[in-house]
Amino acid sequence: MGRIEPRLQYKLLAWLLGPLITLLVFDTAVSYWTSVNFSNRAHDRSLLEIAREVVLHVRSSGNGPRLEMSPTAERVLLVNQDDRVYYRLASTQGTLIGGDPEITGPAGLAHDKPQFYDAVLHGVPVRAVAAWMPYEDSDGSSAKVLVQVAETLNGRQRLAMEILASVVVPQLLLIVMACAAVYFGISRGLLPLKRLQAAVSDRSHLDLSPIDIRDVPAEVKPLVDEVNELLQRLGKTLNFQNRFIADAAHQLKTPVSGLKAQIELALRESDPARVRHSLAQLYVSADRLSRLVRQLLSLARNEPGAVDAVDLQAIDLNALAVEVTMGWVPDALKRGIDLGFEAWSGPVMIDGDPDRLRELINNLTDNAIRYSQLGGRVTVAITVASDGRGQMSISDDGPSIPVEERTRIFERFHRLLGSHADGSGLGLAIVSEIAALHRASITLEEDLDGIGNTFSVFFPPSQPLDRVALL
Predict the structure, then answer these.
(1) Interacting residues of 192 by C-beta distance below 8 A, sequence separation 6+
(2) What is the mean pLDDT of residues 170-186?
């Protein structure tokens, strides 16, 4: 059996109605105590009045006080429709004058005031009062007798329940009405959320347009705003991926078709020299395809979503650039290019990923060597900018890139018109994404000698540099 998911409506009802029900229980307990106390006080006064009436029937005789109460008077005083009433009269010597002899008295009864107490009479709980009350003696003096009156508890309990019902029932009805009003109010208040749920559930998985927030409650609006921003970012990512997949498929289609054509040509050839020539062309095409696949994988690895996976560490840009540049000397010599390196006088520390930085320098250097004229010049220089950032500049003698193309040159698969160098248009796109992962910025300007271009990458420093080194 699945776990029941919590619902906001039920939680609101619990938080609102829980205190009301708790208050009702507390109020019922207080009302019950109050009603019982009120009922006891009313019936206690009645018991005391009955005791006074009984004393009025006491007469004096030569042998002491005696009770002269007619059956009619006794019936009027002691008969009750709800309870049974008992009485007992005793003299100061303890002699029974009249009434029920089984009525027990309280301990330590004072002579100046009546005392109420609870007792058990004939196996039934009763409420009783005992008091010394005066009566008129035969010689005109005042004497006292002990009067005890006991009553069963039916009337008291009935009166207490009536009082309790008169207090609690209206409150219970009020709470029931409040529950209905709260439930209706919460249901109406949650209607915008239900409409929001319907608006989200009814849309297609391809619909990434923002959710309408006109009728959204203010408490939920921040959440919907965040969802809209997420949809916007997701839309950009999906558009980017769709465009990338389409461009990659187009770029892979050409070399694969070339490979197939050259294989078919090699299969038709019988001359070993021609077959060897076809195999050499196959090798060149396979090398181009391999390079294109590596660049596509590099793009996927360096997408903005991979920023959390980048392990940045303190790196000397000076030493890293020297190491990478040295690896391109053989390629530069093949084209007669003068590959130079201008180092900074001391370490240039930045925070970066060594593998990705090598890839960035490799792509910029490869781009410079590939597009420079034969016998030209390529210079890699490491400096420290005036604001303390580490700067790497790569200058070439290639065709000057027009100003209007300098922002598009970093787009994927973008190549300059009229360029005859072999390439896929992915190298600078990889450089741009790796720079973004390192919070670095890239500039493109004409070379200082007016021939070629200069790519400059500015890296935030790993730690404050010495002021003397900056000078």
Answers:
(1) 215, 216, 217, 220
(2) 81
Go through the chain and tell me how many residues it has: 471
Quote the pLDDT of residue 393. Answer: 92
CB of 60 within 8 A of CB of 91?
no
Over residues 81-101, mean pLDDT? 85
d(CA 49, CA 52) in angstroms, rounded, equals 5
Provide the token pair at 433: 């994404």
| Angle at the Cα of 438 from the Cα atoms of 367 and 343, rounded to 5 degrees | 60
Cα–Cα distance for residue pair 163/182, rounded to 1 Å: 29
pLDDT digits (tens, 9 = 90+) for 125-152: 988 989 888 887 656 566 888 898 998 8
pLDDT surpasses 90 at 381: yes
Q: What is the pLDDT of residue 311?
A: 72
Which CATH entry fits the domain spanning 8-161: 3.30.70, 1.20.120, 2.60.40, 3.30.450?
3.30.450
pLDDT tens, residue by residue, 194-252: 777 777 777 777 777 777 777 777 777 777 788 778 877 777 777 767 766 766 665 66
Would you say the C-alpha torsion 136, 138, 143, 149 has a positive or negative sign? negative
pTM across the whole model: 0.46
99: left (phi over 0), alpha (psi -120 to 50) or beta: left
Tell me the one-letter amino acid at 272.
P
Here the tokens at position 260 are 């197939």
Half-sphere CA count of 337, side-chain side, radius 13 A: 29
pLDDT(422) > 60: no
- In this structure, how many other beta carbons lie within 10 angstroms of the beta carbon of residue 99? 21
- What CATH number does domain 309-470 carry, 3.30.565.10, 3.30.70.360, 3.40.920.10, 3.40.1180.10? 3.30.565.10
Class of domain 221-301: mainly alpha
Q: How big is the CA angle at 231 (ends 11 and 6), to the nearest 5 degrees?
A: 15
Pick from 93-102, 209-218, 266-275 the range whose average pLDDT is largest.
Answer: 93-102
